[in-house]
Amino acid sequence: MLRETLKQEIDKLSESQLRKLADLVVSFKTQAQPSAQGELFWQRATPMERAQNFRAWVSQLPKTHSSLPAEAFDRGNIYD
């Protein structure tokens, strides 16, 4: 019953909500899986899992302005 209800709710989600849900599922899966001794996540994860893990990490970063001053983006300043 719960599975069917969840499927119906998932069908109503937007693309951005689905991406967030996919990231959440990946984080649950990585927490539930016992890691092999000495094997790191990036060594055992599929490319899709690594991408979703990276997106989840990026989404947790603070939403601030650029870390570099505006003059750092001026092409002329790289020759100074």
What does this structure look like?
With 80 residues, the protein is an all-alpha fold. The chain has 4 helices and no strands.
Broad shape? flat
The helical percent reads 55-70%
In the predicted model, the low-confidence regions spanning at least 5 consecutive residues are: none
Question: What is the number of helical segments per DSSP (H or I, 4+ residues)?
Answer: 4
Query: How do the SSEs run, as a string of H and E?
Result: HHHH
Q: Separation of termini?
A: 67 Å
Number of E-type strands: 0
Structural class: mainly alpha
Strand content: under 5%
Q: Tell me about the largest β-sheet.
A: none
Gyration radius (Cα, Å) is: 19 Å
Mean pLDDT: 83
Structure at a glance:
With 80 residues, this protein is an all-alpha fold.
Topology, please?
Layout (H helix, E strand, L loop, with lengths): L1 H10 L3 H18 L8 H4 L2 H13 L21
Tags for this entry?
80 residues
